Amino acid sequence: MEKSLKKYFPLFALPALICFTLSFLIPMIWGFVLSFCEFTTITDATFVGFDNYVKAFTIDNYFTQAFWFTLGFTIITVITINILAFTLALILTKSVPGTNAFRTVFFMPNLIGGIVLGWIWQVVLNGVLAGFEQTLLSDAKYGFWGLVILMNWQNVGYMMVIYIAAIQNISTDMLEAAAIDGANGKTTLFKIIIPSVMPSITICLFLTMTNGFKLYDQNLALTNGAPNHQTEMLALNIFNTFYSRVGFEGVGQAKAVIFTILVAAIALVQLVATRSKEVEN
Fold first, then answer.
1. Can you tell me the mean pLDDT for 37-46?
2. Cβ distance 146 to 223 under 8 Å?
3. What is the model's pLDDT at position 9?
């Protein structure tokens, strides 16, 4: 019976494969081709070689500036989100009153859309900064840390849930044996808990890193790149190049290809590095 059903597996996979091909694979390949063309619509594309890629780095410094801003933002948020999420997970896997309520409250911000979050935090942070006669748009450092706060508030709860599930799956026999052997809290944390949850750490690092690089809607709503593109992240820069500058569609497409390759390469390095730790442990 089982063998007879196997021949139908490709048929069941066909709808998903068709959707993947039409909505992702073909647009991705076509977008790569268009990055070598000058165009306003896909029907009037003219091949220009690597001109768009050269212009992406030479026509203005906003793309390079956006890259360094995004890189700094991603490094800070990956560290802060994972430390806070892991700390909360450790606390909420103990016998703390109201644990389920706390888990729900911390997770809820992840359910709110990015644009709405941006508007909410714009009001909150501008209200706080008003006392210092500043706004998120008056200085890039306020916009940067505003985005960091927003990103942490939205993502800490989600990563916390992943860490909680991993910690709860650690063998109690292992923890009890460590306690009997006289292991203190620090030893238990670094020798048992962290090595045991490395697969979850890999997942959370990957998610927070890619989310940081791909951030768009929160950036748009909170600062929209102000002042003078100084808080403009890569995704927003690519959007503005493609849709706000007539004749720069090809340059915007080239930036999108560079962005895709960059994020994929960094994500691959991170996955290889953290998975090697899983093997070791």
1. 86
2. yes
3. 78
